[in-house]
Amino acid sequence: MNNYSFCVPTDIRFGKGQVACLATEIARFGKKVLMVYGGGSIKKTGLYDQIREVLGEYEVYELSGIEPNPKLSSVRAGAAICKEKGIEAILAVGGGSTIDASKHIACAAFYDGDPWDLVLDRSKAVKALPIFTVLTICATGSEMNPGAVISNEETKEKLEINSPILYPTLSVCDPTYMYTLPRRQTAAGTADIVSHILEQYFQPCDDAYITDRLSEAALKTCFKYGPIALECPENYEARANLMWTSSIALNHLLTFGKGGAWSVHPIEHVLSAYYDITHGEGLAILTPRWMRYVLNDETVHRFAMYARNVWDVDAADDREAALAGIEKTEKWFEEMGLPKTLGEVGIDDSCLDEMAKEAVRTSGISSRAYVKLTQSDVRKIYEMCL
Amino acid sequence: MNNYSFCVPTDIRFGKGQVACLATEIARFGKKVLMVYGGGSIKKTGLYDQIREVLGEYEVYELSGIEPNPKLSSVRAGAAICKEKGIEAILAVGGGSTIDASKHIACAAFYDGDPWDLVLDRSKAVKALPIFTVLTICATGSEMNPGAVISNEETKEKLEINSPILYPTLSVCDPTYMYTLPRRQTAAGTADIVSHILEQYFQPCDDAYITDRLSEAALKTCFKYGPIALECPENYEARANLMWTSSIALNHLLTFGKGGAWSVHPIEHVLSAYYDITHGEGLAILTPRWMRYVLNDETVHRFAMYARNVWDVDAADDREAALAGIEKTEKWFEEMGLPKTLGEVGIDDSCLDEMAKEAVRTSGISSRAYVKLTQSDVRKIYEMCL
C-alpha cells in the first residue's frame, strides 16, 4: 500500500427529511445564502418550495440555470453575486454540475481576477465560502469530495479544480429526491459512479487488498441497484444504496493506498467539452472499449479478478475470465439503456485526432495511467466507439 | 437503509515515515503538548526517541503507564497535568487504551469536577483539547472515531464516553510500528477488529446492501492478513491492510444506514472489568459461542450470507451454511492462537450471574441488540465458554 493522507470532513446527512437541518446548520456561518441550481426541475418537483421554506430566516439570493457541463460563465456570474451581496454561504441544490459550479464560485468569491485562473493555477485558490449541498442526482460524488470540473466554453477546455478548501461543509443526501429523475439521468449517473470505481480499481497496485475489496463491494451495489432504480424509480432501497455508493466511490476511500492517473474520464472529458454530451453516456460508450484495448498479459490478472469477484465469473483461465467480465460490463451498460456508439450521441470522426491530443495534454494518461496511452492509442479507442 | 449522519473529520496520515508531520501539525494548536503512552515498549523500539526528536520545538510533558484497560486514575492524573501546565494538545502514542485515556483526558481538562462524571453524563463533555495519535497497534479504531472506553477500578465499571468533540484531529498510522508487536497482541488486536465488524454486520437491517458488502470486504481482509501478520510480523502488506481496516471498521462506515446495539462487546467488557483480561481474547472466546446461541430461524439467513460471502461456503442449505461459517470463524480464532475458554484466561464460574446482570444493565443488549438477550441468556453464553 502506498502512503496516503485521508481527511474527509464533510458532514453527510443521509435519508428522508434531512433537509430540515439546513434551517440551523447554515446559520452557523451567516444568514446571506446564494442558492445555486440548474434548469428548474426542482420547481416542478416541489423541492424548491420546500427548501425556500427551510431557509425562511435567511437572506437568499439565487443563481439558476447551471448547465449539465457547468460553464465558466455561470461561475463568473455566481462570483459576482457573492462579491456584490456579501454572501456568507453557498447552497447547491442539484447534482454534480451544480455542486461543481458552486465550489468554483465559493473560491472565486475570494479571488480578484478571473475565476478560470483558479483552474489553471490551483495555488491561487486559498479561501472558499462554506458550501452546503442538497443532492438530487447521485453520480459525481462531488457532495463529499474537494473536486469540481468546469468547462471553459471559449477554449473548449474541461478541467478540474481540486483543493481541500472545497469539501462541502454539509451535504443533504435524501434518496427520495431521485424518485422523479428521468430514466436517462438515472442510467448516466450510475454509469458515472461505476466509472469512478473502475478508474480507481484498475491501477497497478496489488497490495491494497482492503481497498480493492471495498471497490468490488461498491461495484456490486451499482450493478445490482442500477437496473432496479431504472425499473422502479421510487424504490427507496435502490436509490439509497446508489446514493451512498456514489459518495464513497469518489471520496478517496477507494483509492486509499493506491493512486495513479485515470484513463476513461480524461478521454471522455474531451468528448463532452467538444460536443456537450452527457458525461455518463460518454463513459458508458468508452469504458468497455478501453477495457478491451488495455487488456494484455500484464493487466489480465486484475481483469480476471474483477470478473470473478464482481461478476462471479468462474472461468479458470484468466484471459477467458477477463473477457467474460468485460462482456458482462458491456451488457450491463446496455441493460441500463445507455448508448453504445459515438454515432448515437452525434459524434463523428471529424475531430478525433484533435480530441485525442487534448485528452493526452490535459491528463496523466500518457505518464501515470494503469496502461499508459499515447495520442494514437486514444484515437484508436475513439475509433472503436464510432 | 436507516437515516444516518456521517462526519469523520480526522486527518489520517497513513504509511512509512508519516510521523514527521507532527513537527508542524500540532503547532497549529500550540506548543505545550502532553504526550501519553503505555508501558514503555516505545522506548525499547526507539519510537519514543523518534517522536521526541520530531517534537523538538515543543514544550512536552509526559504521562506514561497507561494500562491495557485504561483506568480512571490515569485520566485523573492526565487532566491534572493539563490544567496545571496549560496543555494545548494531547499526543497519544500507543493503541486503543492510550488513545481512549487521552480522549477522556482531553475533555476532562476542561471540566472542573471528577472525570468520571463525563462518562456518566456525556452532556457534560462540551470541549476537548485537540488529540493527535501515533498508532502502534491496530485494534480499537479509536484513532478515527469519537469513542473511548474507560474502566473505573473502584466501581468495577467499564463504560464508554462518546462525543464528536473526541475525534482525533490527526492520526499517524505507520504500519511499520507494528513490526515489533508480540504475537499475542497481534492476535488479540485482529480479533477486536473482527468483532467490531461482526457487531455491525449482525443487525436486523437487510437493505443496507452497500454497508454489508463493505463489511464483508473488511472481514475478508482480517481473515486473510491476521495469520500472515502472526507468521511474518514484518510483512508490510499484512500490517498495512490490517491497520487501515481497523480504522474503517469502527469509524461508522460499516454501520451506515444500519445501527442497533452491540452484543459481544458488552458481554466482554464486564469480563475485562472484573478480571482485567485482554479485551480481544475475551472477544475471541465469546464470539463463536454467541453466534451459536443466537442462530435461529430468524437469524439463519444473515449467518448463511456471512458464510457464503466471507468464507466462500457453498452449502445450499442456509442452516448448514451458517454452521459452516461459524465453524470457520472459530477455527480462525484458533489459528490465531487465541484462547478458547474462560478457564484459559483465569475466569471461573464464581461471578457469572453478577457479570451477566452487569452486561445487561450497562448496555442495550436486552432491548436493541440483533437478538435481544436477558441476564439468563448472557449467563448461558458465559457457561458455554467455561
Protein described:
- Two copies of one chain form a homodimer.
- The first copy, chain A, has 386 residues and is an alpha/beta fold.
- Chain A is built from 15 helices and eight strands.
- The longest helix of chain A is centred in the middle third of the chain and has 23 residues, at 209-231.
- Chains A and B meet through strand 1, helix 8 and helix 9 of A and strand 1, helix 8 and helix 9 of B.
Write the layout of secondary structure elements.
2 copies of one chain form a homodimer.
Chain A: E1 4-14, H1 22-25, E2 32-37, H2 41-45, H3 47-54, E3 59-63, H4 72-85, E4 89-94, H5 96-108, H6 116-120, E5 131-135, E6 147-152, E7 157-162, E8 170-173, H7 183-201, H8 209-231, H9 236-249, H10 264-275, H11 279-294, H12 300-311, H13 318-335, H14 352-361, H15 375-385
Parallel strand pairs in A: 1-8, 2-3, 2-4, 4-5, 5-8
Antiparallel strand pairs in A: 6-7
Helix pairs in contact in A: 4-5, 7-8, 7-9, 7-11, 8-9, 8-12, 10-11, 10-14, 11-13, 11-15, 12-13, 14-15
